[in-house]
Model the fold of this input.
Amino acid sequence: MIHRIRILLLAALTATPAIAADPPATPAVTPSAVVAQAPAAAWQAIPAEELLVMTIEGGKRVVIQLAPGFSPRHVANIQALARAHWWDGTSINRVQDNYVVQWGDATEKKPMPPGLSATSPGDYAIPLANRRLAVTPLPYADAYAPSTGFVAGWPVAMDGTAAWLPHCYGYVGVGRNMSPDAGTGAELYTVIGQAPRQLDRNIAVVGRVIDGMATLSSLPRGSGEIGFYTPAEHQVPILSVRLASDLPETERPHFQMMDVASQSFAAYLRLRANRKDDFYDRPAGGVDLCNAPVPVREVPVRPAP
Amino acid sequence: MIHRIRILLLAALTATPAIAADPPATPAVTPSAVVAQAPAAAWQAIPAEELLVMTIEGGKRVVIQLAPGFSPRHVANIQALARAHWWDGTSINRVQDNYVVQWGDATEKKPMPPGLSATSPGDYAIPLANRRLAVTPLPYADAYAPSTGFVAGWPVAMDGTAAWLPHCYGYVGVGRNMSPDAGTGAELYTVIGQAPRQLDRNIAVVGRVIDGMATLSSLPRGSGEIGFYTPAEHQVPILSVRLASDLPETERPHFQMMDVASQSFAAYLRLRANRKDDFYDRPAGGVDLCNAPVPVREVPVRPAP
Done:
């Protein structure tokens, strides 16, 4: 009985790890089976210049996908900072439980490279006037926004005038000074707990961690105020941060994300909201915006565009 | 400028650590200032028999508050298992990122003590027929339930017929076999990521971690399937699990939770939904059920009832 509890919790709390070489005989009943069975056409390559590769102490790799379509000025700054090798020798200096891991220049004295873009609070959302977004709607209630959905590979919250990226688990935001300062992009953090959506439209969200998240989320929590590492010796050195496009081809990672307009993504969303595998007595009938992450996968070789 | 970014992000992302010995001259503007200024009458002692004290490798303490009002049969079993010292020598054996930390008998052979209660899926929610709950409503939309609120110190989701505890960060659930098995309470897990609310009403929620959560959430993620620790040497030994009421007074922790019917809690909720401190450009106007944790604090001596 104890044995069966464990085995079946295994089966229940996750999706079946199905890898289908041939089309499946029966429809997938778990979200991850849908992902495993999705055809090649349901996947889109992520451009190498939108992948930030951070290497920390011990050679551990963290890969961040940037969102230039939503935060173009901040992302341009981040790309410039990476090209200037600005983060090399900086550190992860704050880990607050159920909140954020934060990194940047703990000495607070490192000069910024020239040519960074000016930013403003107007950069926290994209206006919908004179623009038609291709939205895959998420038809469930949200505590923070009138409507939600997915646009170009990203979850979005929307009202009648603007769309913005939410602070979901693993999403990356930009530290800033008091408004109207909107940060440069040099001080970054990622969410390691329940989505702090109260920060939406108050801070620029610039991307998401798509590999190595467990390296960040399992770091020791800082003992200083709001999780800052004290003493400074506890800071975790950042060895380098590079755009994938600036790495030699042999070191360059390749990732794909699921097309949010695909039938596979529609099936994935339906099953995230209505679990049908045998474990579930009662499908929820809904899913939170931050509980339906857009599937991302690493691929060994970048497919032809 | 860099210096100010860091300092002000400090001020912005958290509440002011105000400790008021006298009534404050001006109303608190952050949730944690409300908590710091709450009068003694806004706090309720948590009974010692509802506190589970787990000590793991290295002597680290984790304290779980049990919810007998919502899961009486499972909680009675957990109390019996603690009194039988059943978890002593078991282990934390699974850590899956953005999901759960799970513990229990990894050998899957340990006999259960006699006298455990039978459980069923009917135990996952409490029926509202013939019962009037004192609900502090949370008047914001929820993707998973028609309504939400707080009852007797706990967040609840509700429909017209029942109320149930949600799977929030730090909440503790019971591993089980396929339905109609509902688990004994011997195999437990806690949430370490975005609230997996799809598990609500599919698994018994029996309590929440109120101290030592960072010890669990920062454990290395398991390299086995869905985060199981492989090899078994990676499992984290559990030295003991006791009810606080069974500990000598000198070792017994005392905790209080905020009365969800108090004016302090009402002010806390308002500010969680509408951040007014200077950092925020745009208050959210809402807050998710799992993003307004009921304040809990440890106190050195148990106050008179």
Summary: The domain at 45-254 of chain B is CATH 2.40.100.10 (Cyclophilin).
